[in-house]
Amino acid sequence: MAQFRTLDDIDVSGKTVLLRADLNVPVKDDKVTDTTRIERLAPTIEALIAKGAKVVVMSHFGRPKGGPDPSLSLRPLVAPLEKAIGGRHIAFAPDCIGEEARRVVAALRPGEVALLENLRFHKEEEANSPDFAAALAELGDVYVDDAFSAAHRAHASIDRLARLLPAAAGKLMQAELDALTAALDHPSRPVLALIGGAKVSTKLDLLRFIIGKVDILAIGGAMANTLLLAQGKQVGRSLCERDMAETARQLLTLAEERKCRVVLPEDAVVASELAAGVAAREVAIDAVPQDAMILDIGPRTVAQISTALDAARTLVWNGPLGAFETPPFDRGTTAIAEHVARLTRAGKLLSVAGGGDTVAALAAAGTADELSYVSTAGGAFLEWLEGRELPGVAALQDAAGGAE
Ligand code: 3PG
Ligand code: MG
Question: Would the pTM count as exceeding 0.85?
Answer without folding.
Answer: yes
